[in-house]
Amino acid sequence: MSQTDTTLPRPRSAGRTGQGERAEFISRKLFCDLVALFEVLLVLACGWVAKIAYVDMVLHASQSVWQYMNAALLGAVLSYGVLHARNLYSEEKIRNFRGSIAGVALGLAMAFFILIALGFLFKIAHTYSRGWLLLWFALAFAALAGERWLVAAWMSRRIESGFFRQSVAIYGAGAVGQQVRDYLLEEDIGAELIGMFDDRASSERREGDNAPISGGLDSILKFGREHRLDRIIITLPASAATRILEVMDALDELPCEIYLCPDQIALKLQRPRIAYMGKLGLLEMQRKPMSEWDHIAKAVLDYAGGAILLVLLSPLMALIALAIKLESPGPVLYRQLRHGYNQRVISILKFRTMTVTEDASSFRQASRNDARVTRVGRALRRASLDELPQLINVIRGEMSLVGPRPHPLKLNSEFEKRVQKYANRHKVMPGITGLAQINGCRGGTETDEKMKERISHDLDYIKNWSILLDIQILMLTIFSVIRSDNAY
Questions:
Q1: 104-138 pLDDT, tens per residue?
Q2: Whole-number percent of the chain with pLDDT over 90
Q3: In the predicted model, is pLDDT for residue 360 greater than 60?
Q4: How far apart are the C-alpha atoms of 102 and 106, rounded to whole Å?
Q5: Alpha-carbon gap, residue 381 to 487, rounded angstroms
C-alpha cells in the first residue's frame, strides 16, 4: 500500500457516528426542503390569522373557518408550486435574501392571481371576503420576508461553522482525482475533503499523479468506522473495470454514498442520470429541453392564449393597419424569412414599420434615428406592437408566445460563427417575447457583446423552462415594453 500521509484529518462537522450517537449534520438539500415545507405552513397559518382578524373581528361574519382554510390550503400549495418552479427554494436563493425577496413577492402574487382565477372559474369567488384575501396576501408576504431574512442569516453562520458540510473521501489519485480534489477545495458546495486514497505503488502511478496520499482502502475503512463519512468518490479510470468492482465491493460495508467519476467526460456532465432501454442502462448525456407533457402544456397555452389575444387585440390591429396605410404607400404587413425550431426556415408576419420591406438576403438592422423607419413605425417598434401579427404564426404552430426571438437568416449566419452556442437557442420554438426581452435585450444587436447577453438569457430560458415561467414572462412583458428605450 502506497501511503505518504497516514494521519487523516477529522472533519469539523463530524462527530463519531457509532450506535446511540448522531452526527451534527444536515444536508443543504434537506434543509432547503424543510424551509419549503415551513413556508407552506406559514402561508396556511397567515390565511387562518387573516380569517380571525378580518372576517370574525371586523366583519363579525359567521362563515365557517373550514371554508377559508380550504382556500388557504390551496393558496399555500400554489405558492409552493410557483416559488419552486422559479427556483426560489434553491440554496443560493435562500441564502441571498436581498437577491430573492423580489422574486418571492412576485411568486406569491402569481399564486394568489391563480387562486383568484380559479375562484372566478368555479363561480365561488363571491363567497370569500376580498378584505380577507388582501390581508392574507399582506401577512403572507410579511411573514415570508421575515422568515427568509432570519433563515438567510442563520444559514450563513451555520455554513461557516461547518454544520452543513459533508465529509468526502476520494479513492484514486490520478489526474481525474486531482481535478475532483481541486474542485471540492475551491468551490463552496458543502464538502469537506477527508483525503485522497490510493493503493497503487509509486512505480505503478502515471506521470503527474503526484497528489499526497492519505492511505489506501484499509485507511478509508478504518476512518469510516470511527468517524462520519458521508460520501466516497472513486476516480479510477474506466479501463480499470475489475479494480473498480473490487474497490466498490470492499467499501460496501460502510454506511455512506459511493459515486464513480471515471474520466474527464464525467467531470463535464451536469446532473447526469441513468436511462434505460429495456434492461440496457445508459448514462444520459443530454435530454430534450421539454418532455412530451411539457410540449402539450406549452401548446395549450400557445393556442388558447394566442387565439384569445388575437380576438381581443383585433380592433387595435385594425387601427394600426389603417394608420400604416394612410401614412405611406406599400403593404400593411410584410413577411420575412427567419430561423425557427431546429433551424427550420419560417415566414414571420410583422406590421410594416419602414418605407422598405427588405428580404432575408438584403436585411440591415434598424438603428437609432433610422431614416427608413416611418413615424407610425417608430411608435409601433418602441411598443413592440409591430410584432402583433405573429399571433397568426403562433396559431399556425410556427411560433410560441414565449421563447427566443427568431432572427433574420443573415443575422443568424453571421452570429452563429462568432457567438458560442448560438445555435442552441433553436432547441425550442421561437417566441413573440422572451426572457431576454423582459431583461432589456430589445432593439439592435450591433456588437457581439449585445448578442452574447441576449443568447445568455435565451439559454437560461431553455434550461429553466416551465409553464409558470412562460406565464411570468408574459406578465412582465408589459412592464418591460413600457420602461424600455432600446427599441427603435
A1: 999 899 999 999 989 888 888 888 999 999 999 99
A2: 33
A3: no
A4: 6
A5: 6
Domain boundaries, the chain: 28-161, 166-283, 292-483
Instruction: Using alpha carbons, list the distances in angstroms from residue 267 to 65, 215, 234, 249, 264.
Output: 54, 24, 12, 24, 5
Determine which helix (DSSP H) or strand (DSSP E) holds 133, and give its type and residue range: helix 130-161
pLDDT one-digit tens code per residue, 12-51:
443 333 333 334 456 777 888 999 999 999 999 999 999 9
Please answer whether residues 403 and 434 qualify as being in contact, where contact means their C-beta atoms are separated by less than 8 angstroms.
Answer: yes
Q: What is the model's pLDDT at position 435?
A: 92
- Whole-angstrom Cα distance, residue 392 to residue 234? 55
DSSP string of 361-414, one letter each residue: TT-----TT-TTB-HHHHHHHHTTGGGTTHHHHHHTTS-EEESPPP-BHHHHHH
Which letter does DSSP use for residue 278 in this model?
A: T
The model's pTM = 0.59
Instruction: Look at residues 305, 323, 337, 287 and name the one whose alpha carbon lies nearest to residue 433.
Output: 305
C-alpha cell at 228: 462520519
For residue 79, what is its C-alpha cell? 405558492
Residue type, 123: K
pLDDT tens profile 419-437: 888 888 888 999 999 999 8
Q: Residue 161's pLDDT is what? A: 74
Residues near 112 by beta carbon (within 8 Å), at least 6 away in sequence: 75, 78, 79, 133, 137
Distance from chain centroid for Cα 463: 6
pLDDT tens digits, residue range 43-81? 999 999 999 999 999 988 888 889 999 999 999 999 999
Give the Cα separation of 40 and 108 in Å (integer).
Answer: 11
Q: What is the 3-state secondary structure (H, E, C) of 302-368?
A: HHHHHHHHHHHHHHHHHHHHHHHHHHCCCCCEEEEEEECHHHCEEEEEEECCECCCCCCCCCCCCCC
Angle at 459 between CA 350 and CA 440, to 5 degrees: 55
Strands 400-402, 431-433: pairing is parallel
What integer pLDDT is reported at residue 187 of this predicted model? 81
Phi, psi of 150 (to 5 degrees): -65, -45
113's grid cell = 392571481
Q: State the burial class of residue 117 (Cβ atoms within 10 Å of its Cβ: 0-12, 13-18, 19+).
A: exposed
Rounded Cα distance, 344 and 35, in Å: 44
Q: What does the alpha-carbon distance between residue 199 and residue 359 come to, in Å, rounded to a whole number? A: 67
Domain at 166-283, CATH homologous superfamily? NAD(P)-binding Rossmann-like Domain (3.40.50.720)
